[in-house]
Amino acid sequence: MGTHKQAISVTLEADNVTWLKARTGAAGLRSVSELLDQLVAAARQSGRVGPSRSVVGTIDIDPGDPMLEDADAAVQYLFDASLRRPLMVKEAKAVHGSRRRQHMKKARG
Q: Does residue 101 form part of some domain?
């Protein structure tokens, strides 16, 4: 296979562009184009067709509740438990006044 490259225009959701840029940096690549080229090459080599993926085997259903009649209560329990966990919040420093006003105060004093 040659290394001939061809420019194209791609329109993506803003969040996807942000993700691509972050992945490009994390992978140590030079550009989003290089990352896209690698993603497409990997997809082609995998032999998979289409975007669908199976979820078979990723979810366990309680054998005692095969119709999920208690699912609402189970989800509510998990939600309530998550609210009881401590939450770390870091607030940004408050900025008082503008740089211009601070500069003017120094000039006057």
A: no
